[in-house]
Specification:
Layout: H1 2-18, H2 26-42, H3 44-56, H4 64-68, H5 72-86, E1 95-100, E2 106-113, E3 116-121, H6 125-137, E4 141-145, H7 151-167, E5 175-177, H8 182-189, E6 197-201, H9 204-213, E7 226-230, H10 236-248, E8 257-263, H11 270-279, E9 283-286, H12 288-294, E10 303-305, E11 319-325, H13 328-338, E12 343-347, H14 351-360, E13 365-368, E14 388-389, E15 397-398, E16 405-412
Helix pairs in contact: 1-8, 2-5, 2-7, 3-7, 5-6, 6-7, 10-11
Length: 420
């Protein structure tokens, strides 16, 4: 009971702190973020030491190991993303629309901060820094509940953030990291009137649990089941490079390729397209037609027959499925049946096929001849992201600063009254 009360007090502290951000000028807000970014680099030794404690508790073969691992380069990348966020315009206070009614009443729609944003995530210590920077720049306090796997790393990052906040005369509650235990999740999901919105960032199990159990509004970020379709008009060299990058750049992230769809007329090119994957040890689950072309042209120990369970699976590992189709229509139907509305790609030089694919595929990001690995807030120019939304209300795709604001209407008049 005491633990739950302590968690509630921490959330109350974030609520009390949230209004302080509205008092900061654009310049000071940005300057503080840059100080935090610099401090993360300056405290590299302690942060990486904490990260090593987390890594020691995880099996190297776990797909989340790569997500969890920090090094000097990754930490500097996190700091660079934070600096990039600091250079973006403040999203709140912006007039989204303005109208004048016939009676002279002026109505302005203005972007405003949510106030307190809660984020529940798994073994991704970079999320701790990304979420703080986006919430801070968008005018909201953040309440974070990270996974136990990354707890040492997240706490080391938050400690740096809170030291800078305190030195700048701001309440430390602007960046609140709750205990990694399940009680924290339960309290967050019940924090009506305190946390304004909750964003789950992780696997399908976490996302479903938060959506199904929260009394606080949820912006659902989606698990990534991503497809690349090699059409009749595809360029083989481009297809080979895009498939390799989408699958192997970082296998544990949500924008990684899970299923290669190939038109029957291009099956002869399948061995060439898949050849570089063998050097990375990618296991392929192929249907009968694809297997016929890969057998003898791809390492046998890395080939297996595809089962229905392999379609619609987010592998998060060096593995993918291959599906043969006879038409673009069949590819679209397969994506509709097995996709997660995250990121989908077509490889083709046929502009009509590309246009139809982009029109008909129901996903937050739809690519033509581009790796799905680009589904990322930083790559879209957003500085960073709080997650990839696969829903259709309020936010969709990489969620940057604008998606972390809501709006209100400001109405000005000169004594107008409404008739009965």
């Amino acid at each position: 009971m005491k633990k739950i009360m302590d968690i509630k007090m921490m959330i109350a502290g974030a609520v009390a702190a949230s209004g302080s951000l509205l008092q900061l000028s654009d310049e000071r807000n940005a300057a503080i973020l840059r100080k935090v970014a610099q401090s993360l680099v300056e405290n590299e030794e302690s942060i990486l030491a904490a990260n090593r404690k987390d890594l020691e508790r995880m099996d190297v073969s776990n797909p989340d190991y790569d997500r969890l691992r920090l090094d000097s380069g990754r930490l500097r990348g996190i700091a660079a993303d934070m600096e990039a966020v600091s250079r973006l315009p403040l999203p709140w206070g912006k007039v989204l629309s303005e109208t004048t009614r016939p009676n002279g009443m002026v109505i302005r729609k203005v972007a405003v901060p949510f106030g307190v944003i809660g984020v529940i995530y798994e073994a991704r210590p970079n999320v701790t820094a990304d979420v703080f920077s986006l919430c801070f720049r968008s005018g909201s306090a953040c309440v974070l509940k990270g996974g136990h796997d990354a707890d040492f790393s997240s706490r080391a990052i938050v400690e740096v953030v809170r030291r800078v906040l305190a030195a700048e005369g701001l309440p430390e509650g602007l960046c609140t990291l709750l205990p990694a235990e399940r009680e924290s999740t339960a309290v967050m999901l019940d924090a009506v009137g305190e946390i304004d919105v909750i964003i789950p960032r992780g696997g399908r199990g976490l996302i479903d649990y938060v959506r199904d159990n929260s009394r606080v509004p949820v912006i659902e970020t989606g698990a990534g089941v991503c497809h690349t379709y090699v059409d009749t008009g595809a360029d083989v060299e481009k297809s080979r490079e895009v498939v390799l990058n989408a699958k192997t750049r970082r296998v544990s992230v949500c924008n990684a390729l899970d299923c290669l769809i190939i038109h029957r007329d291009r099956l002869a090119d399948l061995p060439e397209i898949c050849h570089p994957l063998a050097d990375k040890g990618v296991r392929i689950y192929a249907d009968a037609d694809a297997m016929e072309h890969l057998a003898g042209n791809y390492p046998q120990e890395l080939l297996a027959e595809a089962e229905e369970e392999h379609y619609g699976k987010e592998f998060r590992d060096y593995a993918m499925a291959v599906k043969t189709v006879d038409t673009l229509d069949e590819a679209l139907k397969h994506i509709a049946a097995h996709g997660s509305h995250h990121s989908e790609c077509i490889m083709t030089e046929d502009t009509a096929a590309a246009a139809r694919f982009q029109r008909d595929v129901d996903a937050s990001c739809v690519y033509v001849n581009v790796s799905t690995a680009f589904t990322d807030g930083a790559q879209f120019g957003f500085g960073a992201e709080v997650g990839i939304s696969t829903q259709k209300l309020h936010a969709r795709g990489p969620m940057g600063l604008p998606e972390l604001t809501t709006y209100k209407y400001l109405i000005t008049g000169n004594g107008q009254t409404r008739n009965p």
